[in-house]
UniProtKB/TrEMBL annotation:
One Pfam family per UniProt: MFS_1
SUPFAM superfamilies for this protein: MFS general substrate transporter (SSF103473)
Domain Major facilitator superfamily (MFS) profile: 20-414
Keyword terms, alphabetized: Membrane, Transmembrane, Transmembrane helix
Species of origin: Azospirillum endophyticum
Superkingdom of source: Bacteria
Residues annotated as transmembrane: 22-43, 55-74, 86-105, 111-130, 142-163, 175-194, 225-249, 261-280, 300-319, 325-348, 360-382, 388-410
InterPro entries, A to Z: MFS, MFS_dom, MFS_trans_sf, Oxa/Form_antiport, Proton-linked_MCT
Name of the molecule in the record: Oxalate/formate MFS antiporter
Gene: oxlT
Length: 448
């Protein structure tokens, strides 16, 4: 007599509970961000200490990104099976361990091992926290994912100066060790508060088309729209990854690395100033464009953001030799780049549902791994042409092509996708209604 229907068994949750999950996810993302976004600070010091070539050191960055992205589908499987708490805690352990290994790395091989372990750790943290945000806020999916991903994009802004200061005062090894230890501990502690919602505890959006069907991974990858998003993801993420990994090198080659820049009474060298601004803009970008996409649609937001990034990269190649323009334009590029991580994850969940979101977005996120393989090619292209302009023009072209695809290709494909799902759902409901009519009643109607 006391049993309840499954739909009523889920206890209602308040907005405070839901937002707490977002805040905890942001804390985890902030603690994991430095492995990617502070890397450029360590490269010159590693090179000066060991005499390794710049390209061989940057291979460690490529390994990190490739492992982080290409293992995401496997991590997605475990997320969907075991929930966020266990996976994020494991990610925190590996994230901290990676920088501790880097602090002792006396060979390139050991540096590469540390980067691979870091890729596993950050992949677990990133994929899980984004997946959790997708599920807790379907009606504000762009904003929720944007805030969560923004923690990863802007998190290193809090620690750029402390890390830089420790590198110069105690050596890069100490910075690796102590920041790795602290960051890993923070993630593990925060992971204890994470959990997934039950489907009855959340409501769908009324402004953005969202499927009511939960696709399996196999079903999703058999749809053309999945591969269009995958190609667009590669096109837009390549330029930003190249900027993340090579911004210090680009600043050096443009002659603005140590040039002083003053803004509102604050004077700093152009490169660290740009790194701080870029992290902030990168963090703002994700919730900003995510919020916009919740209201005007994902595809229109993609068009605006991708166009802005492409134009920013072109202008950086032309005017980046001026310290102030280097600061402004690099900030513009990062503002327009960060949103890829909120828009594509939200679009994926809108298109394929959330039950298997970890696995599906995990495969889509592998596009970042493909883009990471193109980052070292930037160095080769620069050395072949003698200028960064060629590299920047190529990446800008990729951005502008993706912007056009958002409106001309992706938008009509998604419209057809949702229309087809709606029609199938309507037919299924009609079939259920027909089967639920008693035989005698149906006969009486026919004879009446």
């Amino acid at each position: 007599m006391n049993s309840q229907p499954a739909a009523e068994s889920a206890a209602p949750v308040t907005d405070a509970v839901r937002w707490t999950q977002i805040v905890v996810g942001i804390v985890c993302m902030v603690a994991a961000a430095n492995i990617q976004y502070a890397w450029t600070l360590f490269v010159p010091e590693i090179q000066a200490t060991h005499g390794w070539t710049r390209a061989s050191i940057q291979t460690a960055f490529t390994i990190f990104v490739v492992v982080q992205t290409w293992l995401t589908p496997i991590e997605g499987y475990f997320i969907d099976k075991y929930g966020p708490k266990v996976i994020v805690a494991a990610g925190g352990f590996f994230t901290g361990l990676s920088w501790i290994i880097d602090s002792y790395a006396g060979t390139l091989s050991m540096l590469y091992v540390g980067s691979a372990i870091g890729g596993i750790g950050v992949g677990c943290v990133y994929a899980t926290c984004v997946n959790n945000a997708l599920k807790w806020f379907p009606e504000k999916r762009g904003l929720a994912v944007g805030l969560t991903a923004g923690g990863y994009g802007a998190g290193s802004a809090l620690t750029i100066l402390p890390i830089s200061s420790m590198i110069h005062s105690s050596g890069y090894q100490s910075a690796f060790f102590w920041f790795g230890l602290v960051q890993g501990a923070i993630i593990i502690c925060a992971a204890l508060f994470l959990r997934m919602p039950q489907k009855e505890q959340v409501k769908a959006s009324t402004k953005v088309a969202q499927t009511r069907r939960d696709y399996t991974l196999g079903e999703a990858i058999r749809t053309p729209v999945f591969w269009v998003m995958w190609a667009m993801f590669i096109g837009t993420v390549t330029g930003g990854l190249m900027a993340v990994a090579q911004l210090g090198v680009i600043a050096h080659d443009l002659g603005v690395k140590e040039a002083p820049v003053s803004v509102f009474g604050l004077t700093m060298a152009a490169l660290p100033f740009a790194l701080m601004l870029d992290r902030v803009m990168n963090g703002i970008s994700r919730p900003l464009f995510g919020f916009i996409s919740d209201h005007i649609g994902r595809e229109a937001t993609m068009f605006v953001a991708f166009t802005l990034e492409g134009v920013g990269i072109i202008m950086l190649s032309r005017f980046g030799h001026d310290p102030m323009m280097f600061l402004i334009l690099s900030g513009m590029v990062f503002l327009a780049w960060g949103e890829v991580y909120s828009l594509f994850s939200a679009t994926s969940a809108d298109t394929f549902g959330t039950k298997h979101a970890g696995k599906i977005y995990g495969v889509l996120y592998c596009a970042k791994g493909v883009a990471a393989l193109l980052v070292p090619l930037g160095n080769l292209l620069m050395e072949a042409t003698g200028t960064w302009a060629t590299v920047l023009y190529v990446t800008a072209t990729m951005d502008l092509t993706a912007a056009a695809c958002a409106l001309l290709v992706l938008k009509p494909m998604l419209a057809r996708h949702h229309a087809r799902n709606a029609e199938l759902a309507r037919r299924a409901e009609q079939g259920d209604a027909t089967r639920s009519v008693p035989v005698g009643a149906a006969a009486g109607t026919a004879n009446g």
